[in-house]
């Protein structure tokens, strides 16, 4: 079952509500841009590639919901809805990229009906492209893993962060598919536990050996020689840094200290070579995410928190970036069309 897709019969967007996993597998089906925006902000649908798909379909839903408006009002309404979607999560480039790609396609049309049809086609194209590129990322990355290895991963960069297969977990799945003996250590990834709730769920379902560890155990296990490689996803990659779930930088520093390869798996479209680290907003999330877990109060009232959703890892700590175009190695500068530095 795909993480997010278009239900042609009901003309609705449908996606797995990841806040309910692993206890319940519940899907959301909606035509509402507001409901989708709320779902993105609550991480019902999450993960950079999945956000790109969600953003694209969000523009299509906007076109559908404003069909009764005349062209000028229609354009204003769709642009307004796109801005609302864009504001839900500022760090992952894929959300903005998906929204802008479908919005540009829709606004080239002369009528609301034509705009909706074009937007839906473009959003569906993004969905299918994501499936293909995750498999390419997996195939390229699988070559980098030893025949028998233990891989540490952080957060969830699996099928649940994409349409299917995954980026970091796509590398694991592709390596297993070609016969490699891969075990995974999945960092729980506080505060929302994407690693324990989602990555462990995915790998257990695929019969891929997985153990969940506290985020704070990773350095200890690296020092004990229990980790052969680290593979993580990315939300944005600028020429100077990888933006990924908070805690990624900690793993990169420790991997470097222990001479463990540190790989980032991401679509080439995640590279944002036009900006630098200091240009990008890191999403700050609520106090509630730290103060309460499973309905249990974990902090005294009144104590403030610092809860950034992402951190940045200097590219000098990244052994290779595994993309759908091939494997990139440091220094990660603008690639020419057929750059010989890209290993395929
Ligand atoms: C395949 S990239 C997934 C990427 O997205 C996650 O963030 P979030 O769960 O807040 O959407 C995390 O950074 C993952 O590496």
From TrEMBL:
The active site is at residue 235. It is an enzyme of class 5 (isomerase). The record marks 155 as: Transition state stabilizer. It catalyses: 5-(methylsulfanyl)-alpha-D-ribose 1-phosphate = 5-(methylsulfanyl)-D-ribulose 1-phosphate. Keywords: Amino-acid biosynthesis, Isomerase, Methionine biosynthesis. Coiled coil: none annotated. InterPro entries: IF-2B-related, IF-M1Pi, IF_2B-like_C, Initiation_fac_2B_a/b/d, M1Pi_N, NagB/RpiA_transferase-like. It comes from the Archaea. Pfam families: IF-2B. Substrate binds at residues 46-48, 89, 194, 244-245. One of its GO terms (molecular function) is S-methyl-5-thioribose-1-phosphate isomerase activity. Its EC number is 5.3.1.23. Gene3D superfamilies: translation initiation factor eif-2b, domain 1, Translation initiation factor eif-2b, domain 2. GO terms for biological process: L-methionine salvage from methylthioadenosine. Catalyzes the interconversion of methylthioribose-1-phosphate (MTR-1-P) into methylthioribulose-1-phosphate (MTRu-1-P). HAMAP family: Salvage_MtnA. Belongs to the EIF-2B alpha/beta/delta subunits family. MtnA subfamily. NCBIfam families: eIF-2B_rel, PRK05720.1, salvage_mtnA. This is Putative methylthioribose-1-phosphate isomerase. The gene is mtnA.
């Amino acid at each position: 079952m795909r993480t997010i897709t278009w239900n042609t019969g009901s003309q609705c967007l449908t996606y797995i509500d990841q806040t309910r996993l692993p206890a319940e597998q519940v899907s959301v089906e909606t035509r509402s841009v507001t409901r989708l925006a709320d779902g993105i902000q609550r991480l019902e649908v999450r993960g950079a590639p999945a956000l790109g798909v969600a953003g694209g379909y969000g523009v299509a839903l906007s076109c559908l919901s404003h069909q009764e408006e005349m062209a000028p009002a229609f354009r204003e309404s769709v642009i307004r809805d796109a801005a609302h979607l864009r504001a839900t999560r500022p760090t992952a480039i894929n959300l903005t990229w998906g929204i802008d790609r479908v919005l540009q396609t829709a606004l080239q049309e002369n009528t609301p009906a034509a705009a909706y049809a074009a937007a839906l086609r473009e959003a569906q194209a993004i969905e299918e492209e994501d499936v293909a590129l995750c498999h390419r990322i997996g195939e390229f990355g699988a070559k980098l893993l030893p025949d028998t290895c233990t891989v540490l991963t952080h957060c969830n960069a699996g099928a649940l962060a994409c349409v299917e297969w995954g980026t970091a977990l796509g590398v694991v799945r592709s390596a297993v598919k070609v016969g490699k003996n891969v075990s995974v250590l999945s960092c729980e990834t506080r505060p929302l536990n994407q690693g324990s709730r989602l990555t462990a769920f995915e790998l257990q379902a695929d019969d891929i050996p997985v153990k969940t560890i506290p985020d704070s155990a990773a350095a200890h296990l690296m020092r004990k020689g229990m980790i052969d490689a680290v593979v993580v996803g990315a939300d944005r990659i600028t020429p100077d840094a990888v933006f990924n779930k908070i805690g990624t930088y900690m793993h990169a520093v420790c991997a470097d200290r222990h001479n463990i390869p540190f790989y980032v798996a991401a679509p080439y479209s995640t590279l944002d070579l036009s900006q630098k680290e200091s240009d990008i907003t890191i999403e700050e999330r609520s106090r509630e995410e730290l103060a309460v877990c499973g309905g249990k109060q974990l902090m005294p009232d009144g104590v403030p928190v610092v809860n950034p959703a992402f951190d940045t890892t200097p590219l000098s700590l990244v052994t290779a970036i595994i993309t759908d175009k091939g494997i990139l190695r440091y220094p990660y500068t603008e690639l020419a069309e057929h750059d010989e530095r890209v290993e395929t």
